Amino acid sequence: MAAVVQAHERECAVCTNDFTTPKILPCGHLFCRECVISWMDSKSDAGCPLCTCPIVEHQGNSSQIAADVVDALPTDSVMEVIVESASLLVMVDLCTVCEDLTAEYICMHCFEKMCPSCMKIHKKMVVSRSHDVESVSTVTPERLAASRPALCADHVTEKADFFCVDHNLAICTQCFSNKHRTCLDVKSLDEKIQSAEDAFGSLREKMLTAEDNLKKAIVNLNARVQTADVTQQQNMALVDKTCDRLQSMVDECRRQVKKLISDSVSKFKKSLCDVKSELEKRLGKVTSHKHLVTRATAVRPRPALIHAAQTLTDRVNSLDLSDELEAEPWVNPSSEITRYCDDVVKVIGEELKSFKLQLLVVESQKPVLVFHETCGTNISLTNFRKTALKVQLDEYSDSLVMSRDVMTVNVLYEVRIDEINKPSECSVVLGVTSVLPRQLHLPTWSDHLKDSVILWQNRVRDKDIETMTNVAEALKFVKVGSRVGLLVDSSNNLHFYADGDDQGVVAKNVSQPCFAFFELCYDVSQVTALPISERT
Questions:
Q1: Residue 92: is its pLDDT beyond 60?
Q2: I want to staple 408 with a disulfide (CB 3.0 to 4.6 A). Which of 93, 214, 273, 367 is the partner?
């Protein structure tokens, strides 16, 4: 397909006008010769105005040196011709023959602009009847540039038939016979053009391959950046979760210790209050009897005094006048508090040790297959989220687990089957998806994964499957200890592995970044992620 140069692509980014002597910088960007010279004169270390890549390693400050540097840069002759052709097309011009009517047609051979009448005459003339004449409004600059005949470098009106490699010139037959008859390397112009087209084809393929590889490398780097972001989030979450748990332990320790102290003091105070209450009762009886004795002494009715003295004596003798009443001794709970706190400190120490181990796993530089904790409401994750166990052995509860991190290129993500409930009916479902784990809404996970690659027994759902039979056969013989895995290669092809052996490509052009997923079906109740291994 012929490339079409848009109008803005013919403009210099510095002066915003159509290119004039466009120079190709080392980075591949185009600028007018004078624009590059002015740009280099304005800065001692001027780089490309668009990408800042160096124009030259060591450059001087004078305009002469800058001009020499720019003149040494290659000129984009193709762009020159396209700009010239575009200028010719957009120019409002009159017919070059009659000079009084607007030109509506252009000859693709001699580039004459013509009105309708002159166009008809041009098509009838013997010398020009074979020329291709088209409407000015439909001709593109690229087509006009491509239709230009090759002219001799010396005889600018003569058609060039040869190309002198020694002088790097297109020449006519006369020049070939005269000026260039002693040149050692003169080739047919068509042969040289074909050679140039082949060279451009090879260069284009080379650039396409390099572009594809660079894009894949950037995708991989983006995936690694995303992995780093996910790891950061996980580390932050792990720190928050651990600190919250430790803080909960400290708060519970504080509550329990305070309760222990409060209960001990409350018990002792209650004993003191009971003693105080008893003493206050005794004091009340003593005070009331004291009033009786005082009144009897003051009144002194003689016969009654005798009877009162006997009665009050008996009553007072029956009272408990002792002030010796001891409360229960207070037991200081400091030893119990110390023992409780020591136990809590020990538990916290174990938690911190476990926390450090988890950080070592998460912060490992090598990719690690661990399952995302938000996937699978019917799944219990243990062994640092490497082992997935189905909690309820029913067919309908969600049992999907996904890799926590995005898949790395040429790395095998593999799980081992630990438990099977019905070996005769065992089936395994696995695949890759570009859906982020946190965006996967369960239990309707199958709806969200409809555009992903899903592999299961007797069926592989993808439009381009090469080894469907191998996958189906491998999944038929899954048993306890079997290993199934997935790998995305550098060409974004998905490989299926069974017991460590590559079963071939099961899908092409897998969307990146992607995550591996595995489902615990009714008959498979537990799987464990195996150590990641790089494959070439």
A1: no
A2: 367
First to last CA, the chain: 36
Can you count the helices (H) and strands (E) in the chain? 11, 21
Q: What one-character DSSP code corresponds to residue 17? A: S
**Which stretches within 43-169 are classed as H helix?**
63-72, 77-90, 116-124, 141-147
What region, left, alpha or beta, does residue 329 occupy, with left being phi > 0 and alpha being psi -120 to 50 degrees? beta
Residue type, 446: S
Picking from 428, 421, 401, the residue whose alpha carbon sits closest to that of residue 497 is 428
Task: Convert the pLDDT of each residue in 3-56 to its tens digit.
Answer: 555 666 778 888 888 888 888 888 888 899 889 988 888 877 788 888 888 887
Pair 451, 395: CB distance under 8 Å: no
- Phi, psi (5° rounding) for residue 387? -110, 130
CA distances from 499 to 141, 257, 418, 430, 483 (A): 60, 56, 14, 15, 5
- Cα torsion 372, 373, 377, 383: sign: positive
Q: Residue 146 is which amino acid?
A: A
Residue 390 φ then ψ, to 5° = -75, 125
Q: Which two tokens stand for residue 233?
A: 């989030």
